[in-house]
Amino acid sequence: MSASPPAAPGVAPGPAHVALAEVDSTNAEGFRRAPALDRPTWILAGVQTAGRGRRARPWASPRGNFHATLVLKPAEPPETLALRSFAAALALRDALGQLTGLPDCFSLKWPNDVLLNGGKLAGILLESSGLGTPEPVLCIGIGVNLIAAPDPARLDPGAVPPVALLAATGHRIAPEAFLAALAPAYAAREAVLRTEGFGPLRAAWLAHAARRGEVIRARTGDQTREGIFDSIDAQGNLILRMAHATVAIPAAEVFF
After folding, report:
1. Residues 100, 226 within the same domain
2. pLDDT, tens digit only, all 256 positions of the chain
3. How far apart are CA 27 and CA 207, in angstroms?
4. Distance CA 26, CA 69 (A)
5. Fewer Cβ close by (within 10 Å): the C or N end of the chain?
6. Distance CA 241, CA 248 (A)
């Protein structure tokens, strides 16, 4: 295990970095470590043995892919915390574009995926605890298929097929090198969110949104709605323009 050194006296600490050879889940590790953390902290794992995505789905975590969590303690309303998924998605796209020189190949799928040439390359999972208490914790889990993608047969019917960065672009990027680009990219997006609000991030996210203006399906539980992906609103909700109404959807699985 490696960790960042403490900040020098009188210098505001930047994010800490912890590297682990193996862990069950970087988000779970983030919650375990959170009480002792005094600054934002990235936790990077070589392997996850119990990685998970949205709705507690297993997340394939082979060595060489990127598995990391940013642990924050932001004292903000839950609806504001959720907007950090958009900051994380933009930061992922920033880092991927910087490292590959192929920014136009990466797009953003609502609510929390990054696509490479239309295939799913990365996912984001936000989890929180202690909201409304003096010790809130937000874990932003991020997984990127740097060298390997999961078996498409294990996915839901109609899901976006997964892709790996190495096979699709020929770029082999080590997880540590990826974090070195992602951490400052996220810090820059976080600074905008804190100082200027969600507006600039919303505009940037929409500029790179996949399938905007096209017909999509949004599934929530046993309800599926079909319409044109119009926009996202100031709360990050999906705006779906249907035949007889335009609706704002706070959470759903989106299918193209």
Report:
1. no
2. 656 544 444 444 578 999 999 999 999 999 999 999 999 999 999 999 887 665 556 666 789 999 999 999 998 888 889 999 999 999 999 999 999 999 999 999 999 999 999 999 999 999 999 987 888 999 999 999 999 998 876 777 678 999 999 999 999 999 999 999 999 999 999 999 999 999 999 999 999 999 999 999 999 988 999 999 999 999 999 999 999 999 999 999 999 8
3. 29
4. 6
5. N
6. 9
Q: Which among 173, 190, 207 is the end of a domain?
A: 207
Burial environment of residue 80 by CB neighbours within 10 A (0 to 12, 13 to 18, 19 or more):
middle
Identify the CATH number of the domain in which residue 243 sits: 2.30.30
User: From the CB of residue 255, how many other CB atoms can be counted at a distance below 10 Å?
Assistant: 15
Question: Residue 139 sits in which domain range?
Answer: 2-207
What count of other Cβ atoms lies within 10 Å of the Cβ of residue 43?
Answer: 27
Is residue 99 located within the same domain as residue 77?
yes
CATH value at residue 136? 3.30.930.10
